[in-house]
Design goal:
By secondary structure, this protein is α+β, with helices and mostly antiparallel strands. It has 7 helices and 18 strands.
Length: about 290
């Protein structure tokens, strides 16, 4: 990996880590989701980066893909289990990291939260170039199961490329038999999810997060110049086009833009998440989102 590219990934990781730490300090009973999202995203910009995607603030049985919209009055409540998923980009080089917090810290869900953090640490210990993704999944499954929970079987980690948050390789949260290997000079996100229910998710309604999905989009169009191929929030589009709702509706009708669905636990049970971004080199493993 070229030194310049590596340094940009490292800087994106640092900013993403600090943004995640900051966002968690903002979450208290009665706090508006929109305030946490806007402040965390502005923190990234103030550090010289851009968000890799809209801050995900998914609660309880939601695994991912909720970000607040304009005028959102949703607030955090004591006992909510909040997945904070956030990342930063530097010149299109991305980071992606996540943590789970319980609002009010009653401790009721501490085991669920601890198990994904410990599963992530276990996965990082075995990670090396040319390891099969099933081996990583097996480590995650072993730890999650030891806490009495189920790994979410239809969610997992992923590869990361420039302006591409979810590239081809999929890293399961259990041993799925996949012998695909993590190759040197790659960037990945390992992302354990655990469930207090059956460990499967399904698509719910849209969560106010979108991505360019068509092939006809003009690269000179403002939406492309501002967001390229990374996910964006409806509220971000407002700064690009004052008639953003009409524009977004048109783009979705043309299938040039896709809407991310909120991912929900199939049985309605609670979910926790932990995540780091890692550079895998032939002679080193660098967790960009860890101190």
């Amino acid at each position: 990996m070229e030194t310049d590219v590596k340094n940009k990934y490292l800087e994106a990781g640092r900013i993403g880590r600090e943004a995640l730490e900051y966002a968690q300090t903002l979450i208290e009973p009665g706090t508006l989701f929109i305030d946490v999202a806007e402040k965390a995203e502005q923190f990234i910009r103030n550090q010289g980066g851009k968000p890799s995607f809209p801050v995900n603030l998914s609660i309880n049985n939601e695994a991912a893909h909720y970000t607040p919209s304009f005028g959102d009055t949703k607030t955090f409540k004591t006992g909510d289990v909040v997945k904070v998923d956030i990342g930063a980009q530097v010149d299109g080089y991305l980071s992606d990291n996540a943590a789970t917090v319980e609002v009010g810290e009653s401790g009721k869900h501490s085991d669920l939260i601890d198990c994904t953090r410990e599963a992530l640490n276990a996965a990082l210990k075995v990670l090396r170039p040319m390891i099969a993704v099933r081996r990583i999944g097996a480590e995650i499954e072993k730890v999650v199961s030891s806490f009495g929970f189920k790994p979410v079987r239809n969610l997992g980690g992923h590869g990361i490329n420039r302006y591409d948050l979810h590239s081809s390789i999929f890293i399961p949260n259990y041993d799925d038999g996949n012998a695909s290997m993590i190759k040197p000079d790659s960037v990945i996100a390992i992302e354990p999810f655990a469930s207090s229910g059956i460990g499967m998710i399904h698509n719910g309604p849209g969560g106010n997060i979108y991505i360019l999905s068509g092939t006809k989009i003009d690269r000179e169009e403002e939406i492309y110049k501002n967001f390229n191929t990374i996910p964006f929030a409806e509220r971000w589009l407002a700064s690009v086009d004052p008639n953003y709702r009409k524009y977004l509706k048109k783009m979705m009708f043309r299938r040039e833009v896709s809407h991310f669905a909120i991912l929900r636990e199939h049985s309605g049970a609670f979910i926790s998440q932990a995540e780091h971004t890692i550079i895998v080199l032939s002679d080193d493993i660098i967790v960009t989102t860890r101190k």
